[in-house]
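Morning. Coffee machine broken again, so started the prediction first thing and wrote up yesterday's gels while waiting. Chain of 73 residues, entered below exactly as on the submission form.
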Amino acid sequence: MITLMISRKSTTFRIDERIIEAIERAAKLNNASKNRYIEMLFIKHCQGLGILPLDFEPLGETRGGDRKSQNQD
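Came back before lunch.
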């Protein structure tokens, strides 16, 4: 089986502090991290523009966790 490794890439933006505060509040209301909330907004926007396909799925959790094979006991 071939596993394709796709990762998230870090970048920096300069954004008005009021917008950052609004993002923090909106993310909290949606029970999401700021990064996840922004990622979902961009995905929806890019899907609307036709840049991403409508069936595009964001990456799942990539911060570690149990990495054992499903076949191990």
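Residues 13 and 20 are 11 Å apart (CA to CA). Going to sketch it on the whiteboard this afternoon.
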